[in-house]
């Protein structure tokens, strides 16, 4: 079988997630039947609506799945893609439930999808379609700051979130919190500085935390830190681009291959992520990027030798057809569901260390949480205390200089005199969420003599929290 064609999945995406949860259920004590309550999707809305486009009536189908409501609002992205269907929407909603629990943010899990290829439509047509989809969701209670809050995912971004926000505002102008009906919107419309790169940055912070644990690093057969680690990344979109750029520019990692839809660029000395990204913006793909090796089909590059593999595009890219040939000792799942359940079993048996999606790509929803809180409080973070902090810093500098009789070094003075701005606070909160979550997953592994893989441990942490919250609520 050629490398680029995955075999038909023996289990669906949703079943794949459910089986991963089942593995963790062996380690968590629940009352009878609670496992089914946790795993089952609470509600799924399907809408089909007609629109006249270029003189022709076209119908569009979309879904919004609410996997859990033990916390509200239910939270999760909105995907515009020709390959989205009900099964994958439900699977992605389930991942959101576990993800929010792992990073300890008070949301249920949801996800939405519209079956459409955005490339086939003009900007104005996309606006018409997005606004209509938003109306369908809002009218049925699947869009509101209190109950269900979408965010960007594949095929959507700040632009779509702005249209959805405006549609909701026009429908419900009396809702004083209308700005919080979506996250990931433009900063000028109440979005959060730092949300755009949050998921990629979260991947970066997760890897940094992993490399602070020498036992974990040794388990993967690696040593040292991120400097000069050889990384292969698939998908240079919102998540992949920021993750790769930060790893390269801030930690000196070497991005030795970038896999995109049209093929892969390979360069052992390291690709310049920013140059490749700019080339993609100009040409729509990576083919023809000068001075490096070209591999087609690109998926073959997933199997090359490297230290860290980062699938950051789509689900199911590592499957039974290629899992045996994956050579990376460490995989961090930036995409949702990039490894099927069967492939995960194969990789686990071979000792590959996998940092799972439900932990690794949680940075996006963490910063979405900050954005939602900011919207409900109607005030930017740090607005009240920033100048006070600066004044305190000035007093500390003056006191130090008075006591020592010397002038403080410029770097110390600059750092003490600068009150944290909103971006500093967001990054600090994101870093903390990724560090604490990793430590809790590690703790769960420790309690089982580290015999548990990271995915199972992450699910075990999540399930314990969800069942605890449901019991406290008297939900069953
Ligand atoms: N955005 C977010 O905040 C979050 C996203 N995620 C997950 O991360 C993943 C990526 O999302 P995001 O970055 O937002 O999406 P984008 O659409 O911005 O990026 C996806 C990238 O992958 C490329 N791609 C698509 N198909 C393939 C393929 N078959 N082979 C190689 N590359 C491919 C796309 O190319 P092209 O443009 O040509 O289609 C694009 O460059 C998804 O699984 C998403 O659910 C998870 C958490 C949060
Ligand atoms: O930011 C959010 O609310 C959701 C992000 C998302 O869709 C995801 O983590 O998969």
UniProtKB/TrEMBL annotation:
Gene Ontology BP term (one): L-glutamate catabolic process
Ligand binding (substrate): 75, 99, 368
Residue span(s) of domain Glutamate/phenylalanine/leucine/valine/L-tryptophan dehydrogenase C-terminal: 194-474
Keywords, in A-Z order: NAD, Nucleotide-binding, Oxidoreductase
Swiss-Prot/TrEMBL site (Important for catalysis) positions: 153
InterPro entries cross-referenced by the UniProt entry: Aminoacid_DH-like_N_sf, Glu/Leu/Phe/Val/Trp_DH, Glu/Leu/Phe/Val/Trp_DH_C, Glu/Leu/Phe/Val/Trp_DH_dimer, Glu/Leu/Phe/Val_DH_AS, Glu_DH, NAD(P)-bd_dom_sf, NAD_bind_Glu_DH
UniProt-recorded Gene Ontology molecular function terms: glutamate dehydrogenase (NAD+) activity; glutamate dehydrogenase (NADP+) activity; nucleotide binding
Binding positions (NAD(+)): 199, 238
Recorded catalytic activity of this chain's protein: L-glutamate + NADP(+) + H2O = 2-oxoglutarate + NH4(+) + NADPH + H(+)
Active site, renumbered: 111 (proton donor)
Function summary: Catalyzes the reversible oxidative deamination of glutamate to alpha-ketoglutarate and ammonia.
Family, per entry: Belongs to the Glu/Leu/Phe/Val dehydrogenases family.
Protein name: Glutamate dehydrogenase
Organism: Ectothiorhodospira magna
Source taxonomy: Bacteria, Pseudomonadati, Pseudomonadota, Gammaproteobacteria, Chromatiales
């Amino acid at each position: 079988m050629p490398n680029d064609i995955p075999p038909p999945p023996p289990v669906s995406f949703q079943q794949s997630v459910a089986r991963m949860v089942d593995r963790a259920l062996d380690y968590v004590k629940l009352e009878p039947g609670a496992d089914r309550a946790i795993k089952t999707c609470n509600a799924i809305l399907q809408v089909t609506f007609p629109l006249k486009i270029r003189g022709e009536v076209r119908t569009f189908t979309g879904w919004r799945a609410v996997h859990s409501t033990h916390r509200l609002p239910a939270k999760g992205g909105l995907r515009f893609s020709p390959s989205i269907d009900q099964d994958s929407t439900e699977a992605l909603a389930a991942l959101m439930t576990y993800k929010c629990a792992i990073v300890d943010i008070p949301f249920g899990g949801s996800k939405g999808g519209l079956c459409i290829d955005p490339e086939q439509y003009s900007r104005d047509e996309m606006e018409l379609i997005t606004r209509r989809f938003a109306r369908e969701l809002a009218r049925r209670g699947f869009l509101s700051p209190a109950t269900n809050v979408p965010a960007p995912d594949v095929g959507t971004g700040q632009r779509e979130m702005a249209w959805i926000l405006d549609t909701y505002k026009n429908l419900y102008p009396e809702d004083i919190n209308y700005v919080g009906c979506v996250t990931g919107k433009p900063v000028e419309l109440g979005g959060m500085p730092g949300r755009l790169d949050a998921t990629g940055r979260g991947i970066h912070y997760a890897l940094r935390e992993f490399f602070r644990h020498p036992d974990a690093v040794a388990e993967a057969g690696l040593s040292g830190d991120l400097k000069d680690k050889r990384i292969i990344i698939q998908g240079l979109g919102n998540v992949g681009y920021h993750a790769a750029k930060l790893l390269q520019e801030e930690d000196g990692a070497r991005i030795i291959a970038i896999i995109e839809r049209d093929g892969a660029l390979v360069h052992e000395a390291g690709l310049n992520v920013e140059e490749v990204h700019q080339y993609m913006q100009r040409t729509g793909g990576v083919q023809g990027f000068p001075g490096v090796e070209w591999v087609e089909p690109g998926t073959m590059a997933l199997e090359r030798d490297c230290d860290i593999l980062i699938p950051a595009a789509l689900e199911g890219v590592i499957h039974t057809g290629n899992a045996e040939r994956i050579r990376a000792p460490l995989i961090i799942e930036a995409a949702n569901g990039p490894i099927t359940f069967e492939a995960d079993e194969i990789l686990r048996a071979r000792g590959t260390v996998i940092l799972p999606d439900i932990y690794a790509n949680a940075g996006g929803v963490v910063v979405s949480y900050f954005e939602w809180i900011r919207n409900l409080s109607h005030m930017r973070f740090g607005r009240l205390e920033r100048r006070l902090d600066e004044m305190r810093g000035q007093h500390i500098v003056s006191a130090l200089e008075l006591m020592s009789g010397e002038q403080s070094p410029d770097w110390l003075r600059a750092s003490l005199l600068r009150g944290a701005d909103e971006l500093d606070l967001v990054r600090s909160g994101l870093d903390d969420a990724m560090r604490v979550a990793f430590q809790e997953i590690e703790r769960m592994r420790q309690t089982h003599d580290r015999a548990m893989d990271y995915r199972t441990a992450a699910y075990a942490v999540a399930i314990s929290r969800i069942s605890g919250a449901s019991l406290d609520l008297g939900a069953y």
